[in-house]
Amino acid sequence: MESLRITLEQSEIPTHWYNVVADLPTPPVPPLGADGKPVSAAQLAAIFPAAIIDQEMSAERWIAIPEQVREIYRLWRPSPLIRARRLEEMLGTPARIYYKYEGVSPAGSHKPNTAVAQAFYNQQAGIKRITTETGAGQWGCSMAFAGQMFGLEVRVYMVKVSFQQKPFRRSMMQTWGAEVFASPSAMTQTGRDLLASDPDNQGSLGIAISEAVEEAAARADTSYALGSVLNHVALHQTIIGQEAKKQFEKVGDWPDVIFAPCGGGSSFAGIAFPFVAENASGGRHGRPTRLVAVEPSSCPTLTRGAYAYDFGDASGFTPLMKMYTLGHDFMPPGIHAGGLRYHGDSPLVSQLYHEGLIEALAVGQLATFEAGVLFARAEGVIPAPESNHAIRAAIDEALRCKESGEAMTILVNLTGHGHFDMAAYDRYFAGQLEDFEYPAEAIRASLEHLPKVG
Ligand SMILES: *Cc1c(COP(=O)(O)O)cnc(C)c1O
Q1: Contacts of 155 (CB under 8 A, 6+ apart)
Q2: Which of 35, 221, 345, 432 lies 20 to 30 Å (CA to CA) from residue 80?
Q3: Domain locations in the chain as residue ranges
Q4: Residues enclosing ligand 1, CB less than 6 A?
Q5: 73-126 pLDDT, tens digit each
Q6: Per residue in 173-196, pLDDT tens?
Q7: Are 414 and 99 in contact (CB under 8 A)?
Q8: Distance from residue 386's CA to the centre of ligand 1 (Å)
């Protein structure tokens, strides 16, 4: 009988992360400080431990995963690769559809893959506390869990509107021992200033990042941690794609195309980067694997943004990174895939897109929920709204195969489950969700505020 769930032994968990920088046609450009000069390791040392800074700047192809990190990974990894047979049948497609399911982690998404590594390196460096921000709550949960694994205190600044709307994500963080504050908070100067002028400020990811960075920079025992965008985060996530490769080898198949949701780009990087090197040498079976980042049409960073230096946060606190961006003061509408509402994108993902080595497409919110519901009814798993973007694109590809009769192999990065996003599904069922194409005029206006560089 054909096995639908392609598993690996725990001993087959990869021993190294893969660094795509080693295989880029041109070296990446550095992040720049406020003075317009490349940011030095010493400047980053105020908020990150040395091992993380080394990884952020590394061009080394393979970086060993510490045994202590693999030990925690073993709580849920290797994650399963599952053949979506029932979905294929429901669609009547000749395509073979597989999904790599990251929802099996304690926090319910791919984010602990990097949270655990970041917690480990901080603990090794003698750091006692981590500050971070969270919007939808997935990252805060992942960091709270990871901090607990290595005995670190974790303080999470949670965007106030989410703090109020997603009380169970807050409860999860507290269960893992983290302190959670609604941001803007009275804990930082940034927060106090904002509250003084508007006590009802609902917060934003940019504000929460500023609060977390401010606190980390001011205390020697405290580091800051970020859940996406940066090179070391993309690096840690490559465990996903490497496992998937082993699983495809085991089952004697190979993906023709991979779809992943794309917010800051870490889960896309995680599944896609290990295939970039393969593509550079023509692809495993003489055919490159198409690598497709799927973003919301309401926050179309890759498909409609500019490739330029921009700040990582709203208030211009962070270094400038060269990336696709909609402008740091771009205000994404309140769509329900909270993890995809970021104005920028990973510099590495951006560079690969700019050089034509990966593809991107944008999909509307209603179509993503329609796909998620269809997927849940076929496969059982209720996906996170972010994951629904990749599922939508995969279903569209499978339907194209139905027309053409092409029996291609499709891989989806199913980045998380949607158990804490059911209010969003409720709104979809009630007909209260809308599609939103970001107006070209608003994007142009926001891009006019890009910092002038060089
Ligand atoms: C955070 C999140 C994403 C988007 O972030 P990336 O860094 O682009 O991966 C996607 N899916 C889930 C479930 C998330 O929690």
Answers
A1: 129, 130, 131, 132, 178, 179, 180, 181, 212, 215
A2: 345
A3: 4-10+77-108+238-447, 16-65+111-231
A4: 109, 111, 138, 228, 261-268, 339-340, 384, 386-387, 415-416
A5: 999 999 999 999 999 999 999 999 999 999 999 999 999 999 999 999 999 999
A6: 999 999 999 999 999 999 999 999
A7: yes
A8: 6
